[in-house]
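Entry for the shared binder. Reason: the reviewer on the internal report wants the predicted structure included alongside the sequence.
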Amino acid sequence: MSDVSLGKEILSAWTPWSLVSVLVTVLVFGQIVKRAGYSRWWSLLTLVPLIGSIAHVVFAFAPWPVESPRGRKKR
């Protein structure tokens, strides 16, 4: 198998459905991170395989700045 055909097989695995799934995952995690009081840029960690899973656990159990009296915004 040549390198060119291997590259085509890898690219063909990224179907439009896969790209939509990745985009939705990043957007959903971005909303969670935003509500937690962090920057949405942290949601890009979901694109890194092992680091993304660890980031989900860390953000789930870490104290959220929004919950602290100092971090609350007045509505």
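Summary line for the report: The CA atoms of residues 25 and 46 lie 8 Å apart.
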